[in-house]
Write a structure and sequence with these properties.
Number of strands: 15
Radius of gyration: 20 Å
Distance between the termini: 63 Å
Number of helices: 7
Largest sheet: 6 strands, mixed
Strand content: 15-25%
Shape: globular
Order of helices and strands: EEEEEHEEEEHEHEHEHEHHEE
Low-confidence stretches: none
Structural class: alpha/beta
Strand order of the largest sheet: 10-9-11-12-13-14
Amino acid sequence: MASFREGDVVARRSHEMDVLFKIMHLFAKDDGKEYALLKGIDFRLVCDAPLEDLVLLKPDEIAAHWRRVFARNSEIIRRSLARRTEGFPNMRDGGTIEAFTVPGRVLHIDGDRDYVELCLTTYKQMGVPASAYVIPEERQPKAVAELLPRHLPDILIVTGHDSFLPEKGDFKDLASYRNSRYFVAAVKAARIFEPDRDALVIFAGACQSHYEALLAAGANFASSPRRVLIHAFDPVFIAERVAYTPVHQSVPLQEAIEHTITGYAGIGGIETQGRLRLGVPKSPY
């Protein structure tokens, strides 16, 4: 068996090496086996796995994986930018006064530092104004209450890592999830600050999160309807669609969800007004 260290990138034999993980911590369990705490490098999943189930990835395999991820990401960004060009062909009010747009502003709270950096890069590429904080999931409810008055965003993202705990066995029980209860508490804290789901649009959840509980708590969009893994960029793509849908229009749910990487199995939501505003005149400065 290969020798493993914290920071190694691995995959699981028992899951046909479908997701790449970074080893966060090595430890032993009462069964006498050695385990690793794993986090997905591009899927928002955290889990334990015995070392005997892990395969160490080579640098060229990791590089090839990231090339595929960024190629898919770039295609979604390209489609998003093209959609905006089609939606606002000349940006003039009455054909004489040049207009400008004010997209919705995002407050992104994430339990993973690597993902925050990836998401901020993607927000910038898509022209979405965003502030982001790295905050562990268990501290996010308190952080939401502190950060919302400071930023007054149009869109709140509360995410990080999560997973369904199979030993619990009850998909309806919030205690069967690693971090869903923290996301639920964070959404409730946000709704105390702003109850209106159109004034503050919330995306909450991560891999396999308790979708129904998150929506019931007040989220507009959440993961994961089929308790599947979601991609690190999925919350960003939902935020972009909300940020660039005009305030007098509903966000097209079908298009918004289908343009995420995970789709309907991982992302769902309710009817929500967009957060893009048109202004005139455009300043020459």
